[in-house]
Each structure stands twice: as structure tokens, then as C-alpha cells.
Design brief:
The complex is a heterodimer. Chain A is mainly alpha-helical. Chain A has a domain of 110 residues. Chain A contains 8 helices and 1 strand; from the N terminus they run H-H-H-H-H-H-H-H-E. By secondary structure, chain B is an alpha/beta fold. Chain B is built from 12 helices and 20 strands. In chain B, strand 1, helix 1 and strand 2 form a beta-alpha-beta unit. In chain B, helix 1 packs parallel to helix 12 and helix 5 packs across helix 12. Chain B is globular and about 75 Å long. Chain B starts with 5 loop residues before the first strand and ends with a helix. Classes of the chains: A mainly alpha, B alpha/beta. At the A-B interface, helix 1, helix 2, helix 4, helix 7 and helix 8 of A face helix 2, strand 3, helix 8, strand 8 and strand 13 of B.
Chain lengths: 238, 522
Amino acid sequence: MAMQRRDFMRAMLAATVAPAVATQMEAQAAAPTPTKEGPPAPGPVPWMRGLDSAKVDPASTISPEEIGLEDVRFFTQTQMDTLRHLSDILVPPLKGKPGAVAAGAPEFMDFYVGESLPDTKMLYQGGLDWIDSESRQKLGKPFAQTNATEADGLIKPWLRTWMTDHYPHPVHERFLTVALHDLRFATTNSQAWADTMTGKEEKPWMDLYWSPVQPDISRDYFRPAQHVVTPAKHTSKR
Amino acid sequence: MSKEVVDVLIIGSGHSGGMAAKMLTERGINCLMLNAGPIADVTKNAEEKPAHALPYRGFRPPSRLPHVFQSNEFNANVWVDEKEVPYTYDPEHPYNWVRVRLFGGRSLFWSRQSFRLSDYELKGKSHDGFGDDWPINHADLDPYYSKVEQIFHVTGNKDGIPQMPDGDFFNDKTPWSPAMTRLRTVAEKNKFPCVKQRRAEGHDGLASSVNLLLPAAFATGKLKVIPNVIVRELSVDKNTGLVNGAHFVDRISRREMSVKARVVVLAAGTLESTRLLMNSKIANSSGVMGHYLCDQTYGVGVTCSVPEARNGRGAKITGGGAIMPRFRNLDTKASNFLRGYAYNCYSSTGAMDARCFATYGQELEDKLAEYHGSGVTLSAMCEVLARYENHVRPSTDVVDAWGIPALHIQARYGDNEFNMARDAADTAEQLAHEAGFEVLAKNSEPNPPGYSIHELGTCRMGNDPKTSVLNKWNQSHDIKNLFVVDGASFVSAGWQNPTMTILALAMRSSEYLAEQMRLRAV
């Protein structure tokens, strides 16, 4: 047991030490062998027995998006109808690639914007309301029912080029420019898009994903979730 | 329970802390380094993943890191969490404070651009009357720059440009592409220099404190490191007025502890060092601590296309990069701003960004295909004047996750910055037109203060203790065993990326400190 624990401590230290400083830190880590063992496991078998050989093959798992239907939680029905049509217009299916709608981009944006800061929420809600109202005023019908030519007349005049990290300021230009960027991004980085990739010339965006490094385990603040369902209050009113 | 008194306590492990540790331990001095974050091991903490396998499809996690424009879902966990370590600002004038607390700090993630300050910056007041001169000049820094350039394996050429002094570079013999040659030709017609970039190649792709500086310190056996401890305040001997250690809190367990030291070297990063001094209420007899915050404005410039390189012909025309160092306000005078800016120039043989085209759908895809491999970008790095009113101070009502008062940052760009930015965008557009490039996007408006991740000043150096916090050796005027070796000591920002200067100053200061300790003067 003492031996196992020492090995475990070494492994823990190795996990936190960058290669450049490993030698130094290991020298410091030559901790004395514990003279007392930890508390016994509350059962006939030590808890950790056999776990070092347990490994689930990640290839056998799928993402929830592949099978789950996404709830629409943030946008109103009208806003969602507008967003789905806008998605179809801005990022249509082309050359065997899924469009934004097939990639689930509108539903993803409902989730993503719903979790975002107020300025992003207002930009999207305001923008969707605005383009729908423009359509109703100018064409006498909701944006969701416009054809490609009609929609183009409402969208194109407002699109702008921009430089990295600096979207246009005026609100309509900003909304449509941001929406175009976000919908393309959500589409080309979707599972549906990846599924159509042929491999050699086309590869999904791969990068080094960083997990939290030793997160602060005793932090006393919480990030409230946006859609926490609070239990109904039981009142004593009669 | 008596614990040893360490010779030098170094707070921070980035470029400046790493340099201090290397210089001091190599001179036989025992050092203890405290770092606010953990030691990251890329083999354990990171793995290659496709964006579509991540919960946010590669988007920056919502509501997190709203001021770290550089973040995305892949790297979100390497930055300081703005809720864990908050800072405050006037909502009308936000500041992007971009921080890393991993061991090695921001030396793990930087653009590698490696320039020296010239006497146009170090003696700016003598040149144009604004602000203050530094108490040192380029000749004082020259030998240190040279050593730093060798350690960091800086590539570049001796171009003989006074406003961008030459150094001890590894020659850059890469060829000029036709597109970059066209740009250089029109620049030279306008009497603007246009030369190869100067870049720290480091070793095995990394140019960081953790691989170029700290191994030498560890090899002496005289450096100990404690990760995951956050310094709450420095302690002071009431009899002597000298600093004698630090109180710190364990980041993970919240256990409070302290350590005794003969000398303290602050290297926590410009604003964290100043925050710690202000929270400790020391070393500010001048009253200028926290003031003269400056950086460079980024975000201004043009994105262009080389018409001849379109439709698959880019490979033989585009590619490569260049730097056009400051050309304004050297021998001539601009009408509505002081100081100057440089252009980073890049040419891409790859895909264009969709943001270059104000269209969508099939038309956008056609444009992207047509313009592929034809890109040229000029992005300006514009000096921000060091002004008294741009300052930081401890927040009176916001604390971080460990109860340490947060920093309030008050930084606004003024007419000088906005006028310079407009000139930079207009001049870039003019150069592009003269070179026969099509300008696809232009931006004349700076990104928010702090965006360059070059926050500088707030403990500026000077000869007069009444108007500066540090002397010319990065040593506190008030407390002789206290040194601040990061970017806080800057008197002005210049247009240059500050890393080489921070490293040279930290090297020079540490050499001085070691000698003072040998003489028992500190």
C-alpha cells in the first residue's frame, strides 16, 4: 500500500510539471515515505483496485447533437423562424456541403446566444426583430416567407467588410455582419459538415484543446446557469 | 517553526521573473519564485481535438472572457478568468486586460516580435517635448539587448535604421516575394523603410521563460518555485522601512501563509505588480504610482488582395512578411499627432477571410475561391502617449476570489491616438493603391485599450523620486530592497512590442541587484 501511494504521488507530481522543469521538481518531490496508511476503504475491496486498466474507447461515443433534438429556449417562435430563414439564405447548402439549417446552426445559436452576455442577446434579438419588421413594412410579409431575391434586398445593403476583432459599429450592419460570421462558423464547425469531409484536402479545424489546469476547487462563487429551472415555491397561502 | 529567510523573493515567472531568476542564481544568490497559477503540462492538460467535437463548436465559451478577444474555445482555459480575478472600469471606456497565470505567464503565448527601443522613444521628450525622457538611453541597454537577442535567437537583419536599432541577430535570408517587393518599392518611394521582421525563434518552437531562462536558474540549484500561490501583500519592517517578505494565499486550499525575504523582485506583469504595491500601500511617495498607463493601439490597417495572384496564381506571387518601422515625426512633423506607428505587413498564400467580402452564399464562396492566396495585410502598431490621467487604482468595492482588492483601470485614448490611427489607416490604403493592391477592408478605429496585451507604465522609472516610482535600475526610490522588473517601469510605450526591452531591463536590473548584494549595499 505504501508503495502504491508513493507511485501515486509521483504520478500526480509528474502531471503538474512541465518538461523543462521536471528534473528540478522531481528532486524536490522526493517526499518521505508515509509511515501511516490512509483510512481503509469501507468495503472488502480497495476502491481503486483495477481502475488503472479501465479505459472507454472515445470512438465508441457520439455527441448529443448527433441524436438529440435541440430545445429552443431563448428566441421567440417568430425570432426563430426569422433566424432559420436567415440561416438558409446566408449559408445555403452548396457543393455537397450542408447549409446552416442542416448543420443545426440556428438551434446552436439559440443555445449560444441564450448563454451570452446581454449585449450579444440584444444584438440578436433586436436584429431578428428589425429584419422581420423591415420585411413586413416593405414587402407586406414576414421575413421567414421572403424568397431569395426579396431577402437579398433586405440583407445585402447592410453587409460590410471588416478587420479582425473589429465588427462594424452601426447596429444593423453589425447584426447582419455578426450573424453571417457566426452562422458560417457554426456550420463549418458542425458534425454534419465534418461528416462530408473527404479527408486529404479537407480537414476539420483541429487545434490543441486546453482543459482547466488545476482549477480552484474551493472557490466560493458560482456561475449561474441561464436556464436553471427553479422548483415551484410552496406557499402557505390559502 | 522558524523558516529560512530567502535571499530574493521573485513574484512572477514570465519573461521578467525568469530573467531575474537566471541572473541572480547564476551569481550565487538563492531565490524563491512564487507564481499565482499552476504549472501546465501540455501532454497532460491539452489534446488535439476537432472544433465540431467541442460543446461550443470552437466559439469562445459564452459570457466568459468578454475582454480577451484573442480567446476561443480551444484556449479559453489558459487565460485568467475575469470572474475569478475581476477588474473594474467605466462601462463607457472598457479596458481589455489579458492575463495568463500559468507558470511562465505570458511568455508562453506571445507574438515573438523582437524590437529594440531607440532614443526616439527613450528620449522622446527631448525630441518632441511631450512626456518625460527615460533616465537611460539606447547605449545603456545595448549590451543587454544583445545578450537577450542571442538567448531568444532573434532573426532579422542589420538594416541601419536609426528608429529601429540593429542588434545581434541571426540573419534572415528568406527571399522577398513579388507582392512584398512591390510593397517595399512603394514604401521606399515614400521614404518609408520596409525590411524583414525581427522575430524570436527561441528553441524547438518555444521562446519562453520556461525553456530559455528558467532551466539555467534551476541548474544552479539555487531556485525554488512555489506554484499556485497568490501574493496578497508585501510586508514591511517597521523599523527599517524595508520590505521583508510577503503574505500569500494558497490558490487551491485558501491557506494563508507568509515568507521572509531580504529582497523582493516584482515580476508579476505590469498591472499585477502595481496592484500588489498599491494594495500593500508602499513605495509611492511620489504619488505617480498607477499613473501613465500606456500601450499601443492595434486593429487599424487594411486588408488587400494582389489582383495578379488570384485564380490560383498566388503561390508564385504572395507570401512572406515585413516590418515598416515608424516613419512619422522623425525629421518631419505630422499636423495633428505626436510620435508614430509601424506596420506589420503579411502576405498570405492561403485562404482569405470571409470578412473581406460583403456578400454571402454562393457569391461569397466564389469570391473566396477567386481570391484564395492573394492576401496582403498592413496592420498598424501605434504608440499611445503616456498620460497622467490614464491610471489604475485599487477598487474600493470589488475583490477577487481570494478577497484581494481588484484593480480599477481608467484608460482612454485621446485625440493623439485617434488622429494617428486615421493617418495610419489612410497611409496604409495609399500604399496599397500605389502597389496596385485592391483594398478589401479598412479600419481607422483602434481596438479597446489593452488589446495589444502590452500594458506598460504605472511604476515609471526616472531620476527624480518626486516624479517617478523607480530609479534607472528598476529599484524603488523609497525602498532600496524592492525592485520592479516588468513593464511597469516604462516611461513611454513606443510603437515596438515591449518584450525585448522588458527582458533587457530585467537583465540589467538583476545584474545591478546582484552586485549591490555582493557589496552588501542592498
